[in-house]
Please model this.
Amino acid sequence: MKRDRRHLPRHFIRGGAAIEFMFCLPLLLLLLIPVVDFARVIQANMIITNLSREGANLASRTAMNPQELMDALAATAQPLDMRANGMIHITRILASRKNGVSSNAVIGQVRWNGGTHAPSAGAWSCGGAGTYWDAEGNCAGFPPLSGAPETDVLSGSLNDGDVVYQVEVFYRFPLLFGSLDLGDFRLPALNPDLYAMTVF
Model:
């Protein structure tokens, strides 16, 4: 004889819902964690974009010591831990136009030395062609302007003698959830390396 559910005691119905929820909870968590990670990556990307914008604005308008400027920027990056996972570079670029040919020479670069994150191989870094990082975090030993490293930032858009500041912020984001591999089913991993650049 089939019993009608309306006639079952109430505690039987509540217990069945708890058991169903117990079976669904791992699946819900499996879906929730990547969504939370994705939201955190978007927030971190917005923070480092704002850091690069504010840094370029301040670098071009103030006579503030670059290390103090970058310390102030890193302090405003909460909840990101810039000391453990971040880098900031400020590059000073001089535009030159000779015989109708535009070239932008790097005339100085400062790396934030308050963090422990090492420069990645993909970024231009001081250390080649006789340049080196000094104790204050400045790239020293630049050759004369004729042999200085060149960049294509705003190539052709600057007038002869214009000086611009390029601020780059790098952040290695610690993900909660990497890629999920269940044999035939695989979710793509989020890229933990975030980068923002502003020229002002």
